[in-house]
Amino acid sequence: MTPTPDVTRGPAPDYDPIYDVPDGMPRLLALMARLRDPEKGCPWDIEQDFDSIVPYTIEEAYEVADAIARRAWDEVPGELGDLLLQVVYFAQMGDEAGRFDFDAVARSVTAKMISRHPHVFGSDSRDKTAAAQVGDWERVKAGERADRGEGGALDGVALGLPALTRALKLQKRAARVGFDWPDPGGAAEKLAEEAAEFAEAARTGDPDAIEDELGDVLFSTVNLARHMGQDPEAALRRANEKFAHRFAQVEARLAAEGRSPRDATLEEMEAHWQAAKAAARDERA
């Protein structure tokens, strides 16, 4: 059995009233209130607001995902703690402004989960497939959007999402009301069409047209991935890692020759790239 890592220890003064607060969530909430205290808190923490904390929240979420992707389980508790701290930060600022507090956040998500799981907390049957339960989930969410006055099929898809993720969500929403290709073939043809239009825009040299058509290519690529049952974000992450690994091999091969990429021609680097690619194929064989 792998021992649970001790993530509670760290440099601290010999005594502080914070240690009189029970450990866990009570101490974390008290810690944030202390950091934001106008008289006794940290100047940096006091200066922050909702907008300034958002980038840190996004960064911490990605760091959680990265630790999980690397199966770095000893890092996951710390990364999750960093992400939880962002929630506590927002809750503290909300409390200071008289808008909401941490308990309101917890109550909100608890009520939402109960509402969206009638097969667990209600009278609905649990004898459903996961796909059927996803359909139920989406119907409940649609009702929640209608209650907020969001009548359009695409209403409520957050503008702040990464563009790749938002494209996928927009496409899924449109597909639910019938605006979709009937099979992957149509999506593939559309991607080829958009690629040709991008090539034409590139020939004109018009930056605005190039950006517009490139966006269409990327959007169509996401659509094809969806039709093929692939997660475009996962596919791109895989391509990123493959590129990084192969380029590292190019650097290693050049280093063995006493050189670096700056000392090599594009043709020489391409030759090493192809050798690394062939080696990868041989490993898979």
Features:
single chain, 285 residues, mainly alpha, Helix Hairpins, 12 helices, extended
Describe this structure in words.
- The protein has 285 residues and is mostly helical.
- It has three domains: 18-114, MazG-like (Helix Hairpins); 158-230, MazG-like (Helix Hairpins); 234-284, no CATH class.
- Helix content is 68%, strand content 0%.
- The chain is built from twelve helices and no strands.
- It has helices at residues 25-35, 43-47, 50-69, 76-96, 102-115, 118-121, 130-147, 163-176, 184-204, 207-227, 232-256, 266-284.
- α9 packs antiparallel against α10.
- The radius of gyration is 25 Å and the shape is extended.
Q: Ranges with pLDDT <50 over ≥5 residues?
A: 1-7
> Using only CA atoms, what is the Rg?
25 Å
How confident overall, as mean pLDDT? 89
Based on helices, strands and strand pairing, what is the structural class?
mainly alpha
Largest sheet: none
EC number: 3.6.1.8
GO molecular function: ATP diphosphatase activity
Keywords: Hydrolase
Pfam families: MazG
Short overview:
With 285 residues, the chain is mostly helical. It has helices at 25-35, 43-47, 50-69, 76-96, 102-115, 118-121, 130-147, 163-176, 184-204, 207-227, 232-256, 266-284. The two termini are 35 Å apart.
Sequence-ordered SSE layout with sheet pairings:
Layout: H1 25-35, H2 43-47, H3 50-69, H4 76-96, H5 102-115, H6 118-121, H7 130-147, H8 163-176, H9 184-204, H10 207-227, H11 232-256, H12 266-284
